[in-house]
Amino acid sequence: MFKVNDLSVTYNNKVRALKNANAELPLGKIYGIIGPNGAGKSTFIKGVLNLVKHTGSVTVEDTPIKKMQCNISYVAQRSDLDLTFPISVLQCVVLGTVPTLGLFRRPGKKEYKVAEQALRKVGMLDFKNNQIGELSGGQFQRVLIARALAQQSTLVFLDEPFVGIDVHSEEIIIKVIRDLRKEGVTIFVIHHDLSKVHEYFDGLILINKTILAFGEVDEVFTEENLTSAYGSNIIVKVGEKS
């Protein structure tokens, strides 16, 4: 069970970005994290992963998540990353194997094989020698997903992986995510396209400065909950599955 207990984040400018967030969700599923712009979705993930100062606690099967860092993959928004960094696609993906290596060990043949297998899964093996700056937005997003695959984690957090990418890349990424679920991996995805929540996710976390609702899609994706989060102007057909 993935449990969040009273998670709060206040930034240095004294802005409370997230307040007393609570959730309890079974593992091995794909969860969408939804809410309006500025609602604290990215802050929620960063708080869960101890990337920002926070109060409260997060546990996985009663183990504090901070003790599981080597078993967690996190893909940040592409806008937060430096595409001019001089690194090849393969080198970028190999970095995903580093958390599993012992102290002072460098990636070897085994790790490069894992990286190539991950690139093959996202259809990017033919680009392994390209510099990351040469890639399109969708191609680079697939490389980031491959890096997460190379880490072979049981928890994966993706921050807006479908924003600004082509349809083909989105189809590949969602297939990879579904394959991970079959392997028992738990995936959390920050997502904006409400029309696809039934198609993509097993459950949802609805956020607007706190967690307003969590659980299975049909339980969370209701007119009442969406109005509470987005306001009365939200227009979404609830209860319809693609």
TrEMBL record:
It comes from Phocicoccus schoeneichii. SMART domains: AAA. InterPro entries: AAA+_ATPase, ABC_transporter-like_ATP-bd, ABC_transporter-like_CS, Metal_Ion_Import_ABC, P-loop_NTPase. Residues 2-234 form the ABC transporter domain. GO terms for molecular function: ATP binding; ATP hydrolysis activity. Gene3D superfamilies: P-loop containing nucleotide triphosphate hydrolases (3.40.50.300). Pfam families: ABC_tran. PROSITE patterns: ABC_TRANSPORTER_1, ABC_TRANSPORTER_2. SUPFAM superfamilies: P-loop containing nucleoside triphosphate hydrolases. Belongs to the ABC transporter superfamily. The keyword Nucleotide-binding applies. This is Putative ABC transporter ATP-binding protein. Keywords: ATP-binding, Nucleotide-binding, Transport. It comes from the Bacteria.
